[in-house]
Amino acid sequence: MADAVTPPAIALTVAGSDSSGGAGIQADLKTFTALRVYGASVITAITAQNTRGVQDVLVLPPSIIAAQMASIASDLRVRAIKTGMLADRATVEAVVEGLEAFPNVPVVVDPVMVATSGDVLLQPDAVDAVRTRLIPRAEVLTPNIKEAARLLKTAPAASLDEMEAQGRALLALGPKAVLVKGGHAEGCEATDILVFQAGSLRFSKPRIATRNTHGTGCTLAAAIAAGLARGDALSKAVGDAKDYVWGAIDAARNLEIGSGQGPVNHLYVL
Length: 270
Fold this sequence. Notes:
CATH architecture: 3-Layer(aba) Sandwich
Distance between the termini: 32 Å
Number of strands: 9
Structural class: alpha/beta
Oligomer: single chain
CATH class: Alpha Beta
CATH superfamily: Ribokinase
Radius of gyration: 17 Å
Strand order of the largest sheet: 3-2-1-4-5-6
Helix content: 25-40%
Number of domains: 1
Largest sheet: 6 strands, mixed
Order of helices and strands: EHEEHEHEHEHHEEEHH
């Protein structure tokens, strides 16, 4: 008798396509592969993008976004979902409605608002929809310090204690946990703070001086989703994701891809 085959853990990314391959759907699928999770995808937008910036964006119709989500839900046993670039209010609404077909599946919400290059990826009218409709569905919300400030309509945190306080304030929007990322802060260490109802945890790594950081936010959220898909507790998924992203940045020190902010090395673990 043949040995039983264990089905792979499946993670779903709902995000935009990055034509240069460093962020978005492409970064997420590379991350899932590197972390030995089967990756499925729902594309929300197509960007003309490279390491120097975003030149154009085509937001897909809500109907095709909904159809992609329904197709996946009807056939694949998804164990974790990561959301990224959602572009506008209609897209956010379509994704929130699509998530109803995935009851009890943990959702990692990366509130992508601005690209590494500074280009706006979430329209102003969509921010409120993310705040009131999507974030309450999140197992964990993963804003950087600028995104956390925008969601709270306040100034960016200037210290670790302020980061934690803002994470605590974001919990009031309904997610089970908030990971406030400190990659945009100053100092010799990059510290992310996981805030949840019972307390908080801090994850620190030495800051790496490099221009190759394109897609780090997407990659971290995807790595957390991969851990949750494998059944890891959130704290372990976050810690392992932090280690993976730090290693991907470190391994990309000498990569020469494009003339702007290059990507991290997603596949270094292989």
